[in-house]
Amino acid sequence: MWKELLDNTEAVLFDLDGTVVDSMWIWKDIDIEYFKKCGIDLPPAYQKEIEGLSFYETAVYTHDNYIPWVSVETLMDDWNEMAFEYYANTVKTKDYVREFLEYLRSREFKIGIVTSNSRILCHTTLKNNGLLGYFDCIITGETEGAGKPFPDVYINCARGLGVSCDKCLVFEDLVNGIIAGNRAGMTTVAIYDEYSKYQWDEKCSIADYNIMSYKEIADEVSCP
User: Fold this and answer.
1) pLDDT digits (tens, 9 = 90+) for 44-61
2) Last residue of some domain: 90, 115, 147?
3) Residues 97 and 16 in one domain
4) Are strands 137-139 and 11-14 parallel, antiparallel or unpaired?
5) How does pLDDT run across 165-206, given as a tens digit for each residue?
6) Does 53 share its domain with 12?
7) Which helix (H) or strand (E) holds 137?
8) pTM score > 0.85 for this model?
9) Residues 10 and 84 in one domain
10) In terms of residue numbers, what domain contains 50?
11) What are phi and psi of 174, to 5 degrees?
12) CA–CA dist 207, 123 (Å, integer)
């Protein structure tokens, strides 16, 4: 199945956190610590509320709804500083993603990253894991504009790669990311991540395909 699907694909686009790297767990720890520093408990629904929002949108939402005495710019700076050590040294890739990227590169697919995270954290973890050179276009989330589930970020990545949306294959670990890919007219693949396991049935119902691990693809296409 994967060989046939890739035969009709020109570009493969990936979310970052929970899709290329195993990092979603970091953010709950950071959120708890940051809210505590600001003198309030982390709201139980907070992480659900910000799911899919860009880095910038999350800062605006947090400022407007919970911590109005901290500016949007300061929020983003603080989060980058708190997360940097994790992304520089601790965060590792998902199993078999490196082999899959090597396969795609060897066959001259265009490859992109579309993340809600900040550019510095995205580039830092990709560089630390030796993956930065695989990507032809990286769209990040610290600028103003509609994030996921709106399709704009995926459409912009396809445009940056010079590929039509219907020739793009998207890998995502969250519902809002899959919705964004679907709305962009791309073929979507849900990948399992322990952090969002509660969403698995919903993700499988809205994505075109689903995998528990990149090993499923690697085994079929004989990735190196």
Assistant:
1) 999 889 987 889 999 999
2) 90
3) yes
4) unpaired
5) 999 999 999 999 999 999 999 999 999 999 889 999 999 999
6) no
7) strand 137-139
8) yes
9) no
10) 25-90
11) -125, 150
12) 27
Q: Quick one: 55 and 162 in the same domain? A: no
Rounded Cα gap, residues 174 and 54, in angstroms: 13
Mean local confidence (pLDDT), 97-102: 96
Strand, helix or coil for residue 74: helix
Domain count for the chain: 2
CATH number of the domain encompassing residue 163: 3.40.50.1000
Q: In the structure encoding, which two tokens stand for residue 116, read together?
A: 């809600």
Nearest-10 crossing angle of helices 72-85, 119-128: 10
Name the domain boundary from 47, 69, 90. 90
Adjacent-strand bridge partners of 94: none
Residue pair 19/193 in contact (Cβ under 8 Å)? The answer is yes
In terms of DSSP H, where are the helices of 165-224?
175-183, 200-206, 215-221
Q: Which amino acid is at 184?
A: A
Instruction: Compute CA distances 67 → 74, 98, 103, 123, 213, whole Å.
Output: 11, 39, 45, 28, 38
64 and 134, same structural domain? no
Does one domain contain both 6 and 108?
A: yes
pLDDT at residue 224 is higher than 80: no
Residues 6+ apart with CB under 8 A from 186: 13, 154, 158, 165, 166, 168, 169, 170
DSSP 198: G
